[in-house]
Amino acid sequence: MSILVLGGAGYIGSHAVYQLIDRGEHVIVIDNLETGHQKAVHPEAIFYQGDIRDKTFLYSVFEKESIEAVFHFAANSLVGESMEKPLKYFHNNVYGMQVLLEAMVEADVKRIIFSSTAALYGEPAVVPISEDTITNPTNPYGESKLMMEKIIKWAEKSYGIHYVSLRYFNVAGARGTAEIGEDHRPETHLIPIILQTALGKRSHIVVFGDDYDTPDGTCIRDYVHVEDLIDAHLLALDYLEKGGTNTVYNLGSNEGFSVNEMIETARKVTGKDIPTQKGERRQGDPSTLIASSEKARKELGWNPTRSTVQQIIQDAWNWHSSKPNGYEKGELG
Ligand code: UFG
C-alpha cells in the first residue's frame, strides 16, 4: 500500500515510517522540519519538506503520489507551551486538519489514522480512563486535538472519510535498534530529561509538583512504548482496509507510574545518579492519567509486549547513550 505519513520526521511519525517500511509498504513523508529531523526520515521513504497548511504544496503532493491512506502525526504537542501560546495550537493543529481533509476530499483519499491524545480527557473523575469518559481538556493542546477529532467526525458524515482516532497516553522509548529515538528541541518530556541528566548533560531534573493527590505527591502517567504504539496504528490500518467503521481507541499500558517512580527506575536501568530538585506544579498538568486500553486489545487484537517501564527506559537509554547529541550536532535544548 501507499501511505502518506504527515510528520514522518518527528519522534512518533518516524517510528511509524520505519515499521511501515519493515512491513513492505510504500511510504511518502511530509514534514516541515520545524520540530522533526531530516535524519529521522527513513532513507527509503519519499520525502517532501513542506507545511500541511500550505494548500498548494499539500495538494501538489496528493496529485503527484497515489495515496491510499494517511497517518497524521503533524501537530504541536506540548501541554506547557500550549498554555502560553494557545492560538499557535489552534492554527497549526486545527487549521492543519481542515486543509488536510480538504485535500483528501479533493484527491478522493478515504482513510486516515489520527494521532489523538489522553490530554482531551482533562482531569478524569475515574481511572482507568475508557473511551467513553467525558472529554474535558485542561489545556489548549488537548482542546485542539478534541476539535480535530470532531472535524474528522463531520467529514466522515459528509464525505465518507473513514478514520481511526488513537488517543495516546505517554509515549516513550525508542526503536530496538536505536537507529531512531526521541529528540525534541527544547526537550520538555520526562524520560528524555531524566536520561539527559543521567548522561551529565543536565545537572538535575526538576520535579514539577510534589503536592498532588497521589501516593508520593508526584504526577502519575501511563507510559506506552513507541513501538507498541505503532503496532496499533498498523492494526488500525488493517481494520479500515477490512471495512472497519470509524472509531476511537485509547493506547496505554493500563498502569500508572509517578514521576518519582520513573526517576528511581531510570537510576536502576542506567546505574547513574540522577539528581532531582523540587519545583512548582506545571500549569495544565492533570495529576493522574491511566488508560483502559481494553477496547484496542479486544477489537484490534493489540498486544503491547514492550510497555514495561524498565523496557521503555532501557530502549530510550540505548538511544540517548549511543547518540548523546540526538540527531544534530551541538547543545540539546
Ligand atoms: N515532568 C517533570 N519534570 C520535567 C518534565 C516532566 O516533573 O522536567 C512531569 C510532568 O509534570 C508530568 C510528567 O512528568 O507530570 C510527564 O510529563 P511529560 O511532559 O513527559 O508528558 P505529559 O504528560 O505532559 O504529556 C504527554 C505528551 C502529550 C500527551 C500527554 C498524554 O507530551 O502530548 O502525554 O498523557 F498529550
Approximately how much helix is present in the residues? 25-40%
Number of strands: 13
Please count the helical segments. 10
The biggest sheet, with number of strands, parallel, antiparallel or mixed sense and barrel status, is: 7 strands, parallel
Widest sheet, order of strands: 3-2-1-4-5-6-11
Query: N- to C-terminal separation?
Result: 37 Å
Can you tell me the overall shape? globular
What is the oligomer described by this structure? Answer: single chain
Class per helix and strand makeup: alpha/beta
Q: How much is the radius of gyration in Å?
A: 19 Å
Ligand list: uridine-5'-diphosphate-4-deoxy-4-fluoro-alpha-D-galactose
Strand content: 15-25%
Order of helices and strands: EHEEHEHHEHEEHEEEHEEHEHH
Mean pLDDT, as a whole number? 96
Which stretches of 5+ consecutive residues score pLDDT under 50? none
Notes on the protein architecture:
By secondary structure, this protein is α/β, with parallel strands linked by helices. Helix content is 38%, strand content 17%. It is built from ten helices and 13 strands. The chain has helices at residues 11-22, 55-64, 79-84, 86-107, 140-159, 190-198, 226-241, 259-270, 294-300, 309-322, and strands at residues 2-6, 26-31, 46-49, 69-72, 111-117, 162-168, 170-172, 205-208, 220-221, 223-225, 247-251, 257-258, 276-279. Helix 2 (55-64) runs parallel beside helix 4 and helix 6 runs parallel beside helix 8. The protein starts with a strand and ends in an 11-residue tail after the last helix. 48% of the residues are buried.
